Amino acid sequence: MKDDIFESISQRGSGEETAENRRIYEIADELHRRCQLYETQLRNGKSNVSRLEIEQQVAEQYAKENDIWLPMNDVFDLGVPGPSGNENDTYVSNDIIYKVNNLLNSGSLLKLLEKIAMHNDLFYDTAYDFYAFTGFDGRTVMPILKQRLIKNAKPATTIEIDTYMAALGFHKINDEGRFSNDRYEVWDLVPRNVLKDTDGDLFVIDAEIRLTIG
Questions:
Q1: Which end of the chain lies in a sparser environment, N or C, as judged by fewer CB atoms within 10 Å?
Q2: Strands across the sheet with 194-196, in order?
């Protein structure tokens, strides 16, 4: 794992960094530290454990130690089941939508936390809060994220998305919702992931993001 994976994400000054992003960095840094220790212990022993398995074992232990573990059976108490996508099962409670991420797109807890931190920097109107980890003991571990529910919204059009991203300083790469600037590449910005409310304001609720500079 790259030691400085979370050191160069934020595009804002430290004074503007949100408390939630600081919490995400702290969780990610601690998981990364524990993964390194775990990997060191494995060097002279068992070696057929995947990186994701290590992350999940470490995350489960960390979550239970810090009272942020939600048993899978309790996930359904988060709210009313909402629409599910490729990587998220959702639950709605009043003005909040909870997303249980299966890591299908990221393939890594640490990579997902990195992406969430970048999302919060770029699209702070739809910033994520980290809620808990869930899963089955000794097996699958998944993060639960919270996000403000955009009510009475509908999917934005492709032209509206293009205009919005241009206003943020991004240029369009192709017709499949991919954009970049001098720091980030953002993709999967298609109508299902960008909503428009009754005032005509656009909100990016989900996106794939990567840092293009070190």
A1: C
A2: 154-155, 194-196, 202-204
